[in-house]
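INPUT
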Amino acid sequence: MNKLLEISNLHASIGGKEILKGVNLVINEGEVHAIMGPNGAGKSTLSAVLTGHPAYEVTEGEVWLRGENLLAMEPEVRARAGVFLSFQYPVEIPGVSMTNFMRTAVNEKRAYEGKEPLSPKEFLSLMREKKKLLELPDKLNNRSVNEGFSGGEKKKNEIFQMAMLEPRLAILDETDSGLDIDALRIVAEGVNRLKTPQNAAIVITHYQRLLDYIVPDFVHVLADGKIVKTGDKNLALELEEHGYESIA
Amino acid sequence: MDTRVLHKGEVFERVFVNEPEVDLHIVQEAGSRVKIGIVSNDLKQPQTTSNKITVEQAGEGCETEIYVLAFLRGDEQLTTETHVKHAVGGGKSNQLIKYVLDDNARGYFIGDLKIAPDAQKTEAHQTNKNLVLSETAQMRTRSQLEIYADDVQATHGASTGQLDEAALFYMQQRGIGKQKARQLLVNAFMQEILDLLSIDSVDGVIQ
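OUTPUT
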């Protein structure tokens, strides 16, 4: 199996406060890893650091993406190299249409891969195809990015963007929060259909519920900035029953 | 100064693009309509300029729209002055003034809005929004509202901000380079005025 992502001894802080205190994690192609843990454990910090959010400072450790030094890359280069974050709180961008936003993103990635940009026709048919996957309405194209979207629409829109960009590593940060059961099913099915033997996913969640739909190969418990326990999907069930205190 | 009297029911619409020293004085008679746009994205010479629009609604039921968009860079300085007076009632006025300032640019907006005692049932709005892209650019706004009638709807507001960092990061996370992301946000900020003035393409006018 090919190694996709390798995190070793990762320490990171925000505003001088250390949040990650030595995270180690190896993710191979084709794997789904769930990361669970109590509030404040560092789950969202991990996704922010992997995507290069400027507010966080890496103080120690390394992260390699397919043999490349991920931490040395600008956020947009990480994205083009295949790292995708489904945001816990997707950002509204008034005045920038979904079409314009997505076409720019897709073509920037294609340029990075040495490919020609898509023609408007090719692009629109790709939009149409991927929207069906998430049961998103056609009118989406002309709306501003996430502006006025319901909570469920925002999360579907994240997975739609993931479908458009076909990342090697998808990080789903609390994608289940704020979703009703129907939206959860649609989002999870979308994620499952995008799974290939070459890509991988990190699923960050509080609850076992999402993992009924997106079945992980590994479950990690993150507590106080470190992975304190790793198991298979049964660990998630155990946590649901006994809580995090049983581990820490 | 160009003074113009609009007679009953007359319509005056004009968009000035990169014109220095616009100076308009308009008196509106009953039921006339005015729509003025000023778009400045390349002042060239002189680098310091000012535009002044004075409108007086002298008859009932007039409409006045004033839309200003300025994108200033380098050492450019632009002053926009608007003086809108509702002398009689039942009129409407709407003003939207937007500045984007980069480098060492200086922007000034001076806006007077007067509603005379007889101008009942007036609806008047004045909004100034500014986007500052550099540490050294500056915007100053002085807006003054004088209302002497009691049955009116009037609002005025001014805000100056920077590019939304969360939106920038979101776009970068989708693979959009930082410069391109900034450009998309700036264009989005300006688009509102271009829409109001029915100017189709941002690329054609602003880049």
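end of record. The domain at 3-246 of chain A is CATH 3.40.50.300 (Rossmann fold).
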